[in-house]
Amino acid sequence: MPIDPVLAIVGDRAPQDVVEQTRAALGLDRSLPVQFALYLGRLLQGDLGRSVMTSHSVVDDIARFFPATLELATVAIVIATLAGVPLGVLAAVRQGTRTDHAIRVLCLAGHSVPIFVLALLTLLIFYATLGIAPGPGRQDVVFEDTVPAITNLLTVDALLAGDWDAFRDAVAHLLQPAGVLAWFSMAYIARMTRAFMLDALSGEYIVTAHAKGLSAMRVIWRHAFGNIAVRLVTVLALTYAGLLEGAVVTETVFSWPGLGQYLTVSLLNADMNAVLGATLVVGITYLVFNLVADLLYRLMDPRVR
């Protein structure tokens, strides 16, 4: 922690007796094993404590901030999948050609350019220079608090309310950060798809399929791609989980009020309960998506059953 969490609450000019009383009230005067046991006891009851920064329950804060990250990550993974998978397949089929080299360069750029640089360039070009995109944030000021919060997914709530102006504004604000995350994720998805497809296309069953006179499209998408789909599920699931952990840098640059920004601000303010709560959400997210990937294996590959 950058500062003492007790001083973050009472201030660095508080009398020593107030500091000690606050430390005792928070249980920070006890040994670390005791503190940990007390925290686990509250955790089992669904109590993550209160945030010093917002004065709200950490559970309520996460319920308020996480939907923004969920919305951003979902749009990003959809774009990345729709672009990355076909590009990876195309690169494998055209191995060694200019098309393959161009796709590999595109993926290399997506992985090599720091995401904060890409985010800043996006704002500089489309917002500051061309003026065709909105600025940072999740919505314009004129639309704040105009859409009833039902799911806390702004685009969904705007649709449910029938407010098309608010919906278009939410989508416009969503496209830039989602596009940045999508390019970064697309690069990884395309590279893994290409590697999987190259392995599949070298199999003897592909030679047999061609010998039977099947069309190239059927061989590629039915036989080769069908064989790598199970492995690709893991890539997509873990990529989505990585986006859901908060996309800290992207949310910070675009002032996106999601879990990543909440975690960053909490860390800088020595808000221990908020940091631990957000970290727990990240860990649980990875566990859940690993479990989902395992369950999908059973549905997609009878051999696993």
From TrEMBL:
It is a multi-pass membrane protein. GO terms for cellular component: plasma membrane. Signal peptide: none annotated. Residues 66-297 form the ABC transmembrane type-1 domain. It is found in: Cell membrane. One of its GO terms (molecular function) is dipeptide transmembrane transporter activity. PROSITE patterns: ABC_TM1. Gene3D superfamilies: MetI-like. It comes from the Bacteria. The chain crosses the membrane at residues 72-93, 105-128, 170-190, 228-254, 274-297. InterPro entries: MetI-like, MetI-like_sf. SUPFAM superfamilies: MetI-like. Coiled coil: none annotated. The keyword Transmembrane applies. Keywords: Cell membrane, Membrane, Transmembrane, Transmembrane helix, Transport. Belongs to the binding-protein-dependent transport system permease family. This is ABC transporter permease. It comes from Rhodovastum atsumiense. The lineage of its organism: Bacteria, Pseudomonadati, Pseudomonadota, Alphaproteobacteria, Acetobacterales.
